[in-house]
Amino acid sequence: MEFAEVRPRYAVTSWGLWELRSDLAVLLGAEILLWPFCSASSVDGFIGWGRRPSGLKAQRLAVAHAKPVLTFEDGFLKSYAPGRGDPAHSYIIDRKGIYFDAAGDNDLKDLIDETETTLAMTARSQAAIAFIRENRLSKYNNSPIRSLADAGMPYGKPYVLLVDQVAGDASISGAMAEDSTFGRMIEHARQHYPHAALAIRTHPAAKNSLLLEAARKLGVDFVTPGRMNPWPLIEEADAVYTVSSQLGFEALMAGKIVHCFGATYYSHRGLTQDYCALPSARKNASLVQVFHAAYIGYSSYLDLHERKPVEIEVALQQMQTVRDQRNRIERRVYTGGLSPWKRKALQPFIQGPAGTPIQVRNFGRAVDLARLHGGQIAVWGSGRALPDGIPAVRFEDGFIRSRGLGANLAFPCSLAMDDEHVYYDARGESRLERLIAAHEFPDALTLRARKLIDTIVARGVSKYNIGTDIEVPDVAPGRLRILIPGQVERDASIRFGSPQIRTNRELVAATRNLYPDAFLVYKEHPDVTSGLRSGGEVPTDADTIVREGDIKHWIDWCDRVETMTSLAGFEALIRGKQVGVHGVPFYAGWGLTDDRLDVPRRKRRVTVEMLAAATLILYPFYIHPLSAMPCTPEELVEEIARKRIVPVSGFTRLKHAIFQSINRTAVKIRDSRN
């Protein structure tokens, strides 16, 4: 007889924690209930958040009902920005207290005392510390990485860094400090570093600055660097002052002298200069011991997309991916005149350090707002001229787009962003073209590109990932087999990228002239097959016309591909096929294709790995379909290959069908005007 697993049950004490119930359930392997909508006898304990009201309530309930209490808090590597907008990379679960309460017991204190130094532990911790430092990662990561000069710091003048905290926060009182402690910290810095400037780093979530208020009361001169990633500030400082901020520990990672005016988890361990008495002495510990206890033993990490437990190394990679992609959007983005579907599709791609995008119905209004607030305009595709005198970018579908067609309202998982010409617009250089022409492509990058190519091929991933298996035609042995992928003739990629041959019928005829004895398969574009777009006149020179089957299967079958500008040409290149090009797509002119037209500005000869690195790794933006958060191309390829079915309600299906019908009509009207 099999017995069902009995999971513990915990009651959360606030609606905010209830919203995190899925994460809590995974981390605890438990069922999560909401107090007071459950009885004390039905739960094994209570969960609260830090020393907030929910945490204090959980403590009271635990005492009253003789149950354990679990205290949750943000991890030391939390997320891109403060707040609950994004899923958290990490949490802290403490069964005794909480790490910032110096007067009480907590699990972290015990972990530091009990952590034994081993070669494996040391190597792992040092590697994680190095990754954090090299990639400028912190608890929050939405501040731009820039130089001290750009942040307004005086050039060449030494300084000490004083770290602010949120007024009234439990981390201050828990560190046995108070608001006046910040004033004493300033006086100490002024006395002991008389020739250094005092640089005050304000807290990103604080409305009022304790340090600025104290400095003004004391009449002390100071500088406040503009919003920036904290690592350059830390690394160039002569010393760092803090009450109990996590930046103090990051300063220790950077090898800095750290003056602690409160009692925090890393103070009083022989690592810091301490100015706060503790009730009892602590054992000395190394930086590696404290890091391993705090970041690896004490913190719990969840996969950003699948919300399953992962190790710190995975969380660090995902944190870097989110930060790096979002930091490419330097200004706040404004859009105008987009359809509701495109606004929703674009939203997760265009959030950056300046904040979430502003999307309005009128394009002129969007331009005015962007100009007024120092933002940038984003437009979709090449159909609209960019406004003068204001930063602007164009977005277009990426190369590993989705599981389904855009015209069928499948949301994109990949977009390309360009500041002038989209990658298919051969009238000028796109950012992708500049990358292929000038990027250095170190060995690590080309190796990554080769692994990505191999995974794409092995997992059978393409742009749209639709279609079925194929029934291959019977072709005599030795006869050349050529695939001709059809295109939507009114598509911008033909209008702006194929100046001579502009129809599918002309392409097939040109291919027949070049290869009179070859077996030609013309594969209709899926937008045309589905009735969404027009493919023009049916070609007459092909041996067979096919409408079904996934394009990757036809690429595997053929010996070569002939195309105007289709992405199928690129997909054939990475699969080792010969490709003839009759237009000027982004992958032509680099020595990898048989070019029917000259592209004189493309002089560099590149490898397939270099082309793939630029096209699939450096150029696009990626969003994971499960989380709507930035991801790597490797993560997206794996998710698409899994072919998971996401449950959809009947109402959502109906709404989707209505919008799909409207979109079909809109696409046909647009095509008729081009």
TrEMBL record:
Pfam families to which the protein is assigned, alphabetical: Capsule_synth
InterPro entries reported for this sequence: Capsule_polysaccharide_synth
GO BP annotations, alphabetical order: polysaccharide biosynthetic process; polysaccharide transport
UniProt protein name: Capsular polysaccharide biosynthesis protein
